[in-house]
Amino acid sequence: MEMLSGAEMVVRSLIDQGVKQVFGYPGGAVLDIYDALHTVGGIDHVLVRHEQAAVHMADGLARATGDVGVVLVTSGPGATNAITGIATAYMDSIPLVILSGQVATSLIGYDAFQECDMVGISRPVVKHSFLVKQTEDIPLVLKKAFWLAASGRPGPVVVDLPKDILNPAKKNAVCLAGDGQYALLQSHNIRT
């Protein structure tokens, strides 16, 4: 059994999916994921100068290797800057998973600083969009996102991650299940 933050769950889930590289540009809403990329290790981050470039680079990787490309962008303008690249991937049937930061769940819908409806904005140019509202949903949502991106007619999938569910100060007891997914253990089921 391990204690992992939501951000660490994201990175471990990416590793479970065979991800070797992530393309992105840091921002406040995803800094916890950047910290987890460093502490967990195993994934190279390619720093870009603009979020649109991150999506195009992940697109190029997916075209060249057949793997699902992964993008990491922050909330607000970081997420909206990625839309052109996402639309390109959608039109060309390129499998991508775009991890976008979001304001804390309690602030969604209140026009908080750098809040944007990434699920709604991306809807016309993705196969599916997820807004993760609970930390324990991270591994399953990411597994679904990778499956959707690569199955049938491939295409991009957005996973919107509110800042509070990534919080490194909040550790969750998890264990590696037989299928490579993390199962969150409810506190009343943990025996010490």
UniProtKB/TrEMBL annotation:
A Pfam family: TPP_enzyme_N
Any one of the GO BP annotations: isoleucine biosynthetic process
GO molecular function: acetolactate synthase activity; flavin adenine dinucleotide binding; thiamine pyrophosphate binding
CDD domains linked to this entry: TPP_PYR_POX_like
EC number: 2.2.1.6
Assigned GO CC terms: acetolactate synthase complex
This protein's UniProt keywords: Transferase
Thiamine pyrophosphate enzyme N-terminal TPP-binding domain boundaries: 5-119
Superkingdom: Bacteria
Keyword Transferase in annotation: yes
Signal peptide segment: none
Family indicated by similarity: Belongs to the TPP enzyme family.
Protein name: Acetolactate synthase 3 catalytic subunit
Organism of derivation: Salmonella enterica I
